[in-house]
């Protein structure tokens, strides 16, 4: 890890009376926003004392700033992540059970644990194909979605699996607990998905979006919610969540896509009730059809029991 850079300069006459965030920006070539952040984080001293951003500077005062090293958000940090279970491991692939709160790979805006970082930290050799921050990754699960996923260890496995996902020959099965009761009880949602026009962290059904198909069937119907089995034909970001919300049956606990916060509290959920339960594909090494399963984690199992017991 690179050390912080320390710099000290006297305040020139021309900046007398300026706010310290403005003076810092001018003297060190920083943006006003970055200057304010450094002050708020305690990295700026005036004559040896911490100050607020609206403090006015005097000529000759010593302005000290400690500039933390800039961390590339796409750097893979090797870190063994508690809760990631290895379901299967051989020379070609590793199949894991991903817990909630873990991203698949590093990305801007995410500083938490990642699947890629865990595998490197745990000593797994994974394929070098793909961008450096997501080597070996042939599929994704949202940070807030748990369940089974496969990572390629060999270059051959990477190309074979990447192609299988592209050709839609992989059986991706999810269970989702959704609000209310979909009508019909089983069906297909064929609706294009694109970025939400007003919120770039969300997606929505959009006329000019990407082709997206979701098949669902009801496994259990309860007073407040239904447990669905879902098969994805395409694999768009947030696809199940967007399509269920478009049907007016959002995943229980999925506040981003319009779920009822009172119901989420009642069942004790802090994320969407969505779990990747099964993954089936042709093994890239043996050519045999293989299938891997993941059981519900504790938070989802508890929420389902609450819904089952509601009268």
From TrEMBL:
GO terms for biological process: enzyme-directed rRNA pseudouridine synthesis. It catalyses: a uridine in RNA = a pseudouridine in RNA. InterPro entries: PsdUridine_synth_cat_dom_sf (IPR020103), PsdUridine_synth_RluA-like_CS (IPR006224), PsdUridine_synth_RluC/D (IPR006225), PsdUridine_synth_RsuA/RluA (IPR006145), RluA_PseudoU_synthase (IPR050188), S4_RNA-bd (IPR002942), S4_RNA-bd_sf (IPR036986). Pfam families: PseudoU_synth_2 (PF00849), S4 (PF01479). The active site is at residue 142. Its EC number is 5.4.99.-. Keywords: Isomerase, RNA-binding. It is an enzyme of class 5 (isomerase). GO terms for molecular function: RNA binding; rRNA pseudouridine synthase activity. Residues 18-75 form the RNA-binding S4 domain. NCBIfam families: rluA_subfam. Responsible for synthesis of pseudouridine from uracil. Belongs to the pseudouridine synthase RluA family. This is Pseudouridine synthase. It comes from Nocardioides panaciterrulae.
